UniProtKB/TrEMBL annotation:
<dbReference type="InterPro" id="IPR011701">
    <property type="entry name" value="MFS"/>
</dbReference>
<feature type="domain" description="Major facilitator superfamily (MFS) profile">
    <location>
        <begin position="11"/>
        <end position="471"/>
    </location>
</feature>
<dbReference type="InterPro" id="IPR004638">
    <property type="entry name" value="EmrB-like"/>
</dbReference>
<protein>
    <submittedName>
        <fullName>MDR family MFS transporter</fullName>
    </submittedName>
</protein>
<feature type="transmembrane region" description="Helical">
    <location>
        <begin position="76"/>
        <end position="103"/>
    </location>
</feature>
<feature type="transmembrane region" description="Helical">
    <location>
        <begin position="195"/>
        <end position="216"/>
    </location>
</feature>
<dbReference type="InterPro" id="IPR020846">
    <property type="entry name" value="MFS_dom"/>
</dbReference>
<comment type="similarity">
    <text>Belongs to the major facilitator superfamily. EmrB family.</text>
</comment>
<dbReference type="Pfam" id="PF07690">
    <property type="entry name" value="MFS_1"/>
</dbReference>
<feature type="transmembrane region" description="Helical">
    <location>
        <begin position="163"/>
        <end position="183"/>
    </location>
</feature>
<feature type="transmembrane region" description="Helical">
    <location>
        <begin position="109"/>
        <end position="129"/>
    </location>
</feature>
<keyword id="KW-0472">Membrane</keyword>
<feature type="transmembrane region" description="Helical">
    <location>
        <begin position="302"/>
        <end position="323"/>
    </location>
</feature>
<feature type="transmembrane region" description="Helical">
    <location>
        <begin position="228"/>
        <end position="245"/>
    </location>
</feature>
<feature type="transmembrane region" description="Helical">
    <location>
        <begin position="355"/>
        <end position="374"/>
    </location>
</feature>
<dbReference type="InterPro" id="IPR036259">
    <property type="entry name" value="MFS_trans_sf"/>
</dbReference>
<keyword id="KW-0813">Transport</keyword>
Length: 488
């Protein structure tokens, strides 16, 4: 009899490599946008679509991943996903115009959107519940370290080479896992169910999540008074409400929202959303502070965040082991206490705050986040039966995209509003408009970090209610509870 207790490390390694390059690509272009504007002769509002469009495709396709993972094998999904990603990378590298570059970027996104839910589902299926924390710790390393490295590498390349080099570097790295997937990857088919895709659910999901993502991600550049912002958010919210009501009526929903009847899964989702919003405050506001107020170059700005990424890379597997031993509650409370403290320190920035002081605080903050994100998410998923994993992972990944966009837009808007108010006060006190802007912006950044501190405190309070799911519950018992809650 074949021993099925040993996890398929070779399969997981191939999936990890593909996921890493796909997620790494998400933040690769952020620092290169000004260079692309100059080279392809487009304005800031247009070039921003390289980021916004990528997020939109992710927001549209991730909810559909639950259907795809249940319907098709992990091998088929991986090969298609990496083929699309590689094709999009090549198209973007050779793009003669902005339109072709944007098309390549969105083809990339169509492949990368499937990688995170796929990898998470394979880990949940391959590892027993008592060893799942370590594996999910490695997954957390991919999820957070990969996008953190992107700006640093991008800053170095753009400063010394053409922005196209970014894509030419990614292409061979993407082709390696694709070839390994074709020749070496085996199926871990856990469900392979004959499902019917509900077209209306897919349309409502696309309009709902896509509209909300576009609206909030555009608010920072277009302003909240723009119809492109409030109209798309309003349409997105209405579509999302209709989508939710429809899912609760279908026997085979696109996203099984009844997983929220499991209290630990619901709690983990809320904590993850609030933590994502707090995390994005530093990722968005710190580059503004160090580049605009301190006058630091983009590459130094990227390097400032690199130690935090390295710490997270080291800590994620360690945190996973600690999770297996002690559970999520102790880690979440400890980590969130660090996040609250460091975010509070960031709310008191000044003109005298040193570069290495900021680096130390940011690194400590990322250390705290590494103790929370994956343990809390894994604890919630552990309460679900295996048949609900595709829906749980799809919901978690979708919420991370949406909460990241909402958090970024919300905090940037707070910064801009407070900056304008502080500038007017300084001008009324006799300062020139030019002299007032920098101190006013500093006040705006500090105010946003103050609000982010309260968001982190909310996460800490919620973490007090975390409980460890029954590790001895069989799949049959969890399935019975799941169906009972489904029926209720």
């Amino acid at each position: 009899m074949k021993d099925t207790t040993k996890p398929p490390y070779g399969i997981i390694a191939i999936l990890f490599t593909g996921a890493f390059v796909a997620i790494f690509n998400q933040t690769l272009l952020n620092i290169a946008l000004p260079e692309i504007m100059n080279d392809l002769q487009v304005d800031a509002a247009t070039v921003q679509w390289l980021v916004t469009g990528y997020m939109l495709v992710n927001g549209i396709l991730i909810p559909a991943s639950a259907y795809l993972i249940q319907r098709y094998s992990n091998r088929a999904i991986f090969i298609v996903a990496m083929s699309l990603f590689s094709l999009g990378t090549l198209l973007a590298a050779l793009a003669p115009s902005f339109g072709i570059l944007l098309a390549g970027r969105m083809v990339q996104a169509s492949g990368s959107a499937l990688m995170m839910p796929l990898l998470m589902n394979v880990i949940l299926a391959a590892f027993p519940i008592e060893k799942r924390g370590q594996a999910m710790g490695l997954f957390g390393m991919v999820m957070i370290v990969a996008p953190a490295i992107g700006p640093t590498l991008s800053g170095f390349i753009v400063q010394n080479y053409s922005w196209r080099v970014l894509f030419f570097i990614v292409l061979p790295v993407a082709l390696i896992p694709l070839l390994l997937g074709i020749f070496k990857l085996k199926n871990l088919t856990f469900q392979n169910r004959e499902l019917t895709l509900d077209p209306l659910s897919l349309i409502l999901s696309s309009i709902g999540f896509g509209g909300i993502l576009y609206g909030f991600s555009s608010a920072g550049s277009l302003g909240w008074a723009s119809p492109a912002v409030y109209a798309t958010i309003a349409v997105g919210l209405v579509a999302l409400l209709m989508f939710t009501l429809r899912q609760l009526k279908l026997d085979e929903p696109l996203l099984e929202l009844r997983v929220y009847k499991h209290p630990m899964f619901a709690l983990s989702s809320i904590i993850s959303v609030t933590l994502s919003m707090a995390m994005f405050s530093a990722m968005i506001l710190m580059p503004i502070y160090v580049q605009t107020i301190m006058g630091i170059s983009p590459i130094q700005s990227g390097l400032l965040m690199l130690p935090g990424a390295i710490i997270m890379g080291i800590m994620s597997p360690v945190t996973g082991r600690l999770f297996d031993s002690y559970g999520a509650k102790v880690l979440a409370i400890s980590g969130l206490t660090i996040v609250v403290y460091t975010t509070f320190l960031f709310s008191n920035l000044s003109f005298e705050t040193g570069y290495y002081e900021i680096m130390a605080i940011y690194t400590l903050r990322m250390f705290g986040i590494s103790m929370v994100m994956m343990p809390v998410m894994t604890n919630g998923l552990n309460q679900l039966p295996a048949t609900a994993y595709p829906h749980g992972t799809a919901i978690n990944n979708t919420l991370q995209q949406v909460s990241g966009a909402i958090g970024s837009a919300f905090l940037v808007t707070l910064m801009n509003t407070r900056t304008e108010s502080a500038a007017q006060n300084l001008i009324a006190a006799g300062a020139t408009e030019q002299a007032a802007m920098i101190p006013a912006m500093l006040e705006g950044i500090n105010f946003s970090f103050t609000v982010s501190t309260f968001i982190a405190i909310a996460s800490l309070i919620l973490a007090l209610f975390i409980k460890k799911p029954d590790l001895h519950a069989t799949e049959e018992e969890k399935e019975r509870v799941y169906k009972q809650r489904y029926a209720d």
